[in-house]
Amino acid sequence: MVSEAASVSAVWRDYFELTKPRVVLLMLLCAVVGMLLAAPTHPPPLLVLATLLGIALVAGSAAAVNHIADAKVDARMQRTEDRPIAKGRVSHLAAGAFAGFTGVFGFLILYVLVNPLTAWLNLASWAGYGLFYTLYLKRATPQNIVIGGLFGAAPPLFGWTAVTGSLDPEALLLVLIIFVWTPPHFWALALDRRDEYLEAGVPMLPITHGERFTRQQILLYTLLLVVCSLLPFLIGMNGVLYLAGASLLGAVFVYFAVKLLRGGSGKTAMHTFQYSIIYLGALFSVMLVDHFLSWSP
Q1: Residue 262's CB: how many other CB atoms inside 10 A?
Q2: Does residue 11 sit in the same domain as residue 45?
Q3: Total domain count, the chain
Q4: Is 154 domain-assigned?
Q5: What is the value of pTM for the model shown?
Q6: Is residue 14 part of a domain?
Q7: CA angle 144-264-182, nearest 5°?
Q8: Does residue 127 share a domain with residue 192?
Q9: Residue 138 is assigned to a structural domain of this protein
């Protein structure tokens, strides 16, 4: 009985891993930011719950499709070789059924309990990431991260439309910030894992254009990110507190990018990658604090 229970637990852990839970969690946090910024007060708890559940299921479905398509590549990379499909713990057929069920269920939750616009936007993101990016874009061009980043940048928009039912400039600005943040975030990781991507045959920028060019691009995108991060203040969406926080966070990001361009230590790329995650979370946190304090110039 104990071994059977342990076996069932292991199976569910594998299916849970198919959803890329850490990535989904980051998406949900970004969606919450969109919801809180869109609402004049706190959005209704049931709306928040339905929105997050629907987004999580649709995003988890797209992640499972990614696992299926990348199984052979995952098996050749040390970072991903232990994934459930790559190791054979979950079959392609079972993973496909899981992706189909979670995707449809998530879409229906959003359509019925939230609003049709949010549901259709999630479906479009699912198709963009799960099909276009995974099956074609990832292996077609070193600009895969730039173009594909649009799909990963959408969660704040989902949260915004869940509350407002409309597409507004403020929501698109949140998408823009994540869109511009994505290349320096992933290219820093690609510098650290260059050999793995080379062995797997994925045309990441450090492989196709060299490490020096990639470092230059990281700095350029980081500078562009700093400019984009100031736009919420410039359009009156946020106030002085946000301006100070965004400026400080951006200055630190630029420091890492400049250090990376100048060579740095062997760990600089991974330090830049790790800070990029801290940056995004901190930037949105400051945005929320400023929003609720209503501290405007």
Answers
A1: 10
A2: yes
A3: 2
A4: no
A5: 0.84
A6: yes
A7: 25
A8: no
A9: yes
In this structure, the answer to whether residues 179 and 243 fall within a common structural domain is yes
Full domain range(s) for residue 122: 1-144
Tokens of 187: 């290219």
Same domain, 262 and 188: yes
Indicate which CATH number applies to the domain containing 140. 1.10.357.140
Residues 21 and 127 in one domain: yes
Q: Does residue 79 fall inside a structural domain?
A: yes
| Tens of pLDDT, residue by residue, the chain (297 residues) | 434 443 444 587 888 888 888 888 888 989 999 999 998 778 899 999 999 999 999 999 998 988 887 777 667 776 667 788 887 888 888 889 999 999 999 999 999 999 999 999 999 998 887 777 776 766 667 777 777 777 788 999 999 999 999 999 999 999 999 999 999 998 998 888 787 777 767 778 888 888 899 999 999 999 999 999 999 999 989 999 999 999 999 999 999 999 999 986 668 999 999 999 999 989 999 999 998 886 444
Is residue 124 located within the same domain as residue 218?
no
**Statement to judge: residues 182 and 138 lie in one domain:** no
